[in-house]
Amino acid sequence: MSGGDRVSQPLLQVSDLHVQIASRRGIVRAVDGVSLEVPAGEAVGLVGESGSGKSMTLRAILGVLPAEARVTAGQVLLDGVDLTQLANNQLNQIRGPKIAMIFQEPMSALNPVMRVGSQIAEGPQVHLGMNRRQAAERAIELMRRVGIPDPERRYRSFPHEFSGGMRQRVMIAIALSCEPSLILCDEPTTALDVTIQDQILRLLTRLCRESGTSLVFVTHDLPVVAQVCHQIAVMYAGRIVERGSVQEVLTQPWHPYTLGLVRSAPDVDHPRSSLAAIPGAPPSLVSPPAGCRFHPRCKFAEQDCTVTEPPLRLIDAGHATACLHYERCLDELRTEGADR
Amino acid sequence: MSAISLSAGAGAGDSAPQAAAAERAQPRRHHWYRQPALIAGIVIIGLILLAVIAAPLLTSWNPDTQNLNATLEGFSAHHWLGTDQEGRDTFARLLYGGRVDLQVAFIAVLFPFVLGTILGSLAGYFGGWIDLIIMRLVDIVVAFPFFVLIIALVFVLGPGERSIYIAITLVGWVSYARIIRGEILVAKRQEYVLAAQSGGLSNLRIMGRHLLPNVITQAIIYAMSDIVQDILAIVTLSYLGLGIQPPAADWGTMISDGQNFLTTHWQLTTIPGLVVVVTGLGLSLIGDGLADLLRPGQ
Amino acid sequence: MGRMTFVFRRLLLLVPTVLGVTIITFFMIHLIPGDPARTILGIHATPRAIAILHREWGLDRPLASQYWLFMDRLVHGNLGTSLYYGVPVAGLVTSHLPATLWLICYAAVIAIVISVPLAMIAASRKDAVRDHIVRAVPLLGLGMPAFWLALILQTTLALKFRLFPVSGYGTGFTGHLHSMFLPALTVAIALCPVVIRSLRASMLNVLGADFVTTARAKGVPGPRLFIRHVLRNAVIPAVTVMGINIGFLIGGTLIVEQVFQVPGIGQLMINSIFQRDFDVVQAVALVFGVGVVLVNLLTDVAYASLDPRVRFDR
Questions:
Q1: Mean pLDDT split into 10-residue runs, chain C, 314 residues
Q2: Nearest chain A residue to C309, by CA
Q3: What is the ipTM of this complex?
Q4: Where are the beta strands (DSSP E) in chain A?
Q5: Which of C103, C148, C197, C297 to mutate to test binding with chain B, by most B CBs within 10 Å of its CB?
Q6: pTM for the complete prediction?
Q7: How confident is the model at residue B195 (pLDDT cuts 50, 70, 90)?
Q8: DSSP letters of B35-91?
Q9: DSSP H or E segment with residue A139
């Protein structure tokens, strides 16, 4: 897609990213050709089940993959610079001031022997050249912004003295500390209680809207995406199978997998007698099924689905799907609507 | 806001492919013959054991025969590793000395193993007073550096094999006691123990037939490194003259006998030491290999 | 609870242990076959002379009251008199203690200097060739008799190449550094396998931990990442392991002192054993016992200081 006519360039452009993990069982193709665009100031949701490759995608963007994983192809363009080609010390200048990341498990994501305040202040010290006092002041101010009470005193606390929700606020403070233009969120609320989840999500969305920061929000929880994001991309077995605005994709999914996800999430407004589950298990990423990777579990599967991998096709304004027979989803929805 | 995760929704249903996937994912570790460390260790120890057991077949020399006309000879076809200052064949002394050292070490490791396991089980299972007393005892024994206590005890009891066994038993039981106690403290909370207890089984039976077989593996792994320690202790005692008494051949006395000739006839001291090192290596490899093998998960 | 309270409580718990140490030492020595009076008197050992010495030393009293006497003197700082040298034991011990302390500290430093980089090399690329080498080589050290290594080092580096003095303690700080290098190296090599193994394991643990990923994602540069995040966490379990093995460290010094003729309490003890010098052996064993107990306490305190999660328990 040429960028010449667009009003504004996307902040981050991921093109055909491939990440492979070396394991005992063989090469795991964790991310198999993922393309993504994150416009400035917008929140993009990346949804999928465990093992779909969504965390790996985030980590690949920032270059913090685990030791066994490598980017084998593709580009990650930030301001025209391909992050995958940068050396680690060059990447270090991006991490923090340009892109920041929030992780899932706040307890294990914070250094247990380092004071919370120091951990928040570390970014400004390293990247913004602040001295200890300045960085400390900034940290206290950040703690206030994310809603940590009594920040002057709690600056000296250790992570284990905080509750889960508070720790996640600390992580958010760390992420904001160098004023990045993009924050990558790897399931930040999954490990939290439901009520706390809500608080954290509201905090995150408010802060990002206030400062115009973009978000890439990885989760397996659809309602969360609905609350936070503008755009959504659905991942399955290392590939993106559907992409579009949150509104469109969640009300009118054009891929059987997305349809399954939407149905398996309980809906308070339309209680069903039982939750519909997607039958089968996620495929092996070492030797995925031939053709469309979802076809073994898909009730709409036909002969052509087993032959070649369907590409992600743009059907309508901004709504793309990788299903050859996406119209079947529309039919399903219509019948379902008729049943209600 | 819903908290039901997609993975829950997607995973229900046909579990057979999942189970098959899980089985394929089973790490190959659990086959003992695939562990390089374990194999290497077994090979090394196997060779050494073979050599010392087959000593009469490998050499015609008697380790104690002195020949004052052929002292301090170097390598030769006649005496493969030469002779020492009293004309005794070094190779023969190495092999027969190995018999003594290894035998003492392997036997010596059994007593602390048994004693420590019993005391550790009692302490861990019953807790309370028994635990307090036994752990106090452990603290006191542990307060002394291993060698210090061994040397002092052997001296008190008089040098020789018997004292070595007693000293090692009195000092060595603590490690086993601690290991077993720790394992039992964890294991006794397991459900199968509660089931056995509510089934009215006697404590002894529970400890013996249910708990012990599960916790003993850690002690066995430790025993491997303990044998190494015992070999070192025996050899050290012999070096000091407190261990295996001359004229019996043993690696420690060989080192001690040869130390005055290090600059001229280095093989007298160096070779026995190397043999000890390699034996220790083999045993450590076995211990490491076993630990990898028996480690739950990972 | 504050650090002081923690230390104080642990010190209190030490008392029964130390008492136990004294009991064991006392009874152990007094089980020695052979009569010191007879040994000292030699050919002049008449029954009468022996009886006099026995009464003088309190050896004719029941064991329990001898123990009481022993404890009484101990509390007053009197460790007895050396039968061999004829001087108060306390003085002997204090004059020999510095050399051993030097040896222990020197050995610990060398062990750390060797182990940390090696563990780091191994942990940085798990299961690579260098990892296997770093893991395998120390296995040789596990089975290595300290005195044998001492002899080899002494013969090659000191005798043959004349790089270091063959024996002795040396004079002055640099003299000590020079003379004690080989003995300290010997002890350190014996200690390294354990330290490397535990440091590597804890580093691997830490390297795979989430907070290290967070720090990387923050853009923390390499050296700072290693020291403030990885090392700072990895040393904690390693400290415990080193503390547990301190007994071996100290025990190893015994033999090494003998080979290198370092005038420390280890050599004092060995000589006194052969000389059947009761009080000295007893006093040194006591010093060792109390020393190890104190070091364990130090380890616990160090552990609590390093790990903030531990302070607030019990």
A1: 70 78 75 62 73 72 76 76 78 88 89 89 81 83 88 84 77 81 90 86 85 90 86 83 76 85 88 78 81 81 79 48
A2: A160
A3: 0.81
A4: 12-23, 26-38, 43-47, 69-78, 81-82, 99-102, 182-186, 214-219, 231-236, 239-245, 313-316, 319-321
A5: C148
A6: 0.74
A7: confident
A8: -HHHHHHHHHHHHHHHHHHTHHHH----TT---TTSTT--S-SSSTT-B-TT--BHH
A9: helix A132-145
Residues on chain C bordering chain B, Cβ-to-Cβ distance under 8 angstroms: 16-18, 20-21, 24, 28-29, 31-33, 139-140, 142-149, 151-152, 155, 159-160, 247-248, 250-252, 254-255, 258, 269-270, 273, 281, 285, 288-290, 292-293
Output the six-digit token pair for C280.
């000295």
Provide, as residue numbers in chain B, all residues whose Cβ is less than 8 Å from the Cβ of A191.
none
Run of H or E residues at B112: helix B90-126
- Region of C177 please: left (phi>0), alpha (psi -120 to 50) or beta: alpha
Residue of B248, B188, B183 lying closest to B222 (CA atoms): B183
Q: CA triplet A221, A224, A227: central angle to 5 degrees?
A: 155
User: What's the confidence (pLDDT) of residue A18?
Assistant: 92
Sheet holding A12-23, edge to edge: A26-38, A12-23, A69-78, A81-82
SS3 (DSSP) at C149: helix
C41 token code pair: 């008197």
Question: For residue A41, how many other CB atoms are within 10 A of its CB?
Answer: 16
The SS3 call for residue A182 is: strand
Q: Is A101 helix (H, G, I), strand (E, B) or coil?
A: strand
Chain B residue with CA closest to C295: the answer is B143
Nearest CA-CA partner of A72 in A37, A26, A21, A12: A21
Quote the tokens at residue A74. 């593709």
Mean pLDDT for A130-137 is 91
Distance (Å, rounded) from C-alpha C25 to C-alpha C21?
6
Which residue blocks in chain C are alpha helix, DSSP H? 3-29, 36-41, 47-57, 63-75, 89-124, 129-142, 146-153, 172-179, 181-207, 210-217, 222-224, 232-244, 246-260, 265-274, 278-306, 308-311
Q: Are C93 and C268 in contact (CB under 8 A)?
A: yes
For residue A22, the 8-state DSSP code is E
> What pLDDT, on a 0 to 100 scale, did the predictor assign at position C42?
65
Q: Kindly indicate the confidence band of residue B4, based on its pLDDT and cuts at 50, 70 and 90.
A: very low
pLDDT at B194 over 80: no
Choose the closest CB to C248 out of B146, B263, B279.
Answer: B146
Mutate to test the interface with C, among A24, A59, A61, A64 (most CBs of C within 10 A): A64
| Residues making up chain C, counted from first to last | 314
Q: Is pLDDT of A234 > 50?
A: yes
Question: Residues A9-22: pLDDT tens digits?
Answer: 788 999 999 999 98
List pLDDT tens digits, range B222-272.
898 899 989 999 998 888 888 888 778 889 888 888 888 877 878 888 889
